[in-house]
Amino acid sequence: MLALEIDNLHKRYRGGVQALQGISLGVQEGEFFGLLGPNGAGKTTTIGIITSLVTKTDGRIKVFGIDIDEDFPAAKRLIGVVPQEYNFSIFEKVEDIVCQQAGYYGISRLQARQSAEKYLQKLGLWEKRHVAAQTLSGGMKRRLMIARGLVHEPKLLILDEPTAGVDVELRRGMWEFLAELNASGRTIILTTHYLEEAELLCNQIGIISGGELIENTSKRSLLRKLDKETFVFNTKEPITGLQSLNPFEFIVVDETTMEITLNKEESLNHIFEVLDNQNIIVESMRNKTNRLEELFLEMVEQ
Amino acid sequence: MNRNLTSFTCIARKETTRIFRIWIQTLVPPVITMILYFIIFGRLIGSQLRDIGGYDYMAFIAPGLIMMSIITNSYTNTVSSFFSAKFQRNIEELLVSPTPDWIIVLGYVSGGMVRGLVVGFLVSITSFLFTRIPLFNLGYVVMFAVLTSFVFSLAGMINGIFARKFDDISIIPTFVITPLTYLGGVFYSISLLPDFWQALSRANPIIYMVDGFRYGFLGVSDINVLTGLGMLVLFSIILFSINLFLLKNGVGVRT
Fold first, then answer.
1. φ and ψ of A27, to 5 deg
2. What span, in angstroms and rounded, lies between the C-alpha atoms of B186 and B60?
3. Which of A156, A261, B135, B250 has the fewest CB atoms in 10 Å of its CB?
């Protein structure tokens, strides 16, 4: 079943800006869907329409088969949203913020407290439940919004750049948490600027650019489109007098580092064979950039 | 419990908690202002004036001053709370939820009513320190107090919906509500005015509220109290409908 079905979605803002130009996409139940795109591409507008913060100009949206034009409240009960910017009252206590959100979904105070405890515990905020939200660190505020988005147990969780401005350790913790949520059957839609995040978590990727969906496929088939990949090699000895690594293109970055570009039809084994012939001993190697990032830049720049 | 009732209770609880959390800002200032009114207008100036409708000036203005505090506090609470929710963007918590618009309106309005009525009660108690106000008909007192706080909470909500910056939430209270209140028979009986000004005063909706409320206490009025009640019910329906229309069309809250 489709958790989310968007058909020919258009949005023109009052000032005349055409933010969306007929986006259509489907997200299967249980998927971890990454919605990527540069700033101003239309990702947040799309999420805004799904969650009713933005009114659409045209098009249809169904959430688990429920058309939002026919029964938006029923559709909303199935959606949890974690916005890009903090949108809670900073003067209220952490637990109150989460419980109130449950209340808005018609969940009783008792159930709300149980659910709030479950998610505040999981997200490491339980000790902070009695403090005002303004005293939380940036990472804690992000986690508070995730707990709030989950308190009514939505089947579809939408996260708009949830790890923006979060330190590496915390980000990895959040990735684990999201992966766990998805593994338990929850459908997740994620917009992010960290393509490493999308490559790690998502199994389906959509790319929006200029208000249009320019790609919507599985991560695997998307990565298959990558023609070239650049690897960084660190050598044991300084690289001296190297003229050619035929058939590979290469750049010597410093005396023990070089970048080698590999075409899709070539193999890493062949690189090592060529390096071996040149008596170059490799100490370590890594991808120059995230693979999805290379592809993303290629597609958006086209 | 019904989902809508749960949502309403949740908003109402949040709004009420806010009023009592910041009581120094919400409950104390109106009482101090009213004490000053009682001292200056009631005791100092009022002692030089003759009785109105058979009551001394202090007893005459007391119901008007109570009603004035109900009006300003109901309005101020809803407009500031709703605008603050927009400003901090936590109004989105409600907008993304299945809570219907009419529950959102009633939830915020309930906060305005609680503040208006609590302040009204505190001012009433304060007034007893200065004068003895008779109680002619408790039913009218309660009906006028509740309906007036409902009407002005609804009006404050409309202001909050349209407001885009902090200045916008003080324009209407300063330039519309305060003048109408002062000209609404709080400090004088409109029967003292020449015919033309009496007729003009009847176009001021606040006169019906002050007059009806005063009737509940003193048993004297310039206007038929049932007309006043009818006006309040009519205003309630109109303002509630405007709020629903605005929220349904996303004015001020959705893009």
1. -120, 120
2. 8
3. B135
The full 3-state SS of A23-52, as one line of letters, equals EEEEEECCCEEEEECCCCCCHHHHHHHHCC
SS3 B222: coil
User: Which one-letter amino acid corresponds to residue B227?
Assistant: T
d(CA A166, CA B100): 35
Give contacts of B92 with chain A, Cβ < 8 Å.
Answer: 53, 83, 87
ipTM: 0.83
pTM of model > 0.95: no
Q: Among B117, B119, B113, which residue's Cα sits nearest to residue B157?
A: B113
* Per-position pLDDT tens, chain B of length 255: 588 999 999 999 999 999 998 899 889 998 998 888 888 877 777 777 777 767 777 888 888 889 999 999 999 999 999 999 999 999 999 999 999 999 999 999 999 999 999 999 999 998 888 888 888 989 999 999 999 999 999 999 999 999 998 889 888 888 888 888 888 877 777 777 878 887 888 888 888 888 899 899 888 888 888 988 999 999 999 999 999 999 998 888 888
CA A280 from chain centre, in angstroms, equals: 39
Which member of A89, A90, A104 has the closest CB to residue B99?
A104
Cβ of B14 and A100 within 8 Å? Answer: yes
Cα of B186 to nearest chain A Cα, Å? 37
CA neighbor of A56 nearest in space, from A223, A211, A274, A246: A211
Please give, rounded to a whole number of angstroms, the shortest distance from the CA of A104 to a CA of chain B. 5
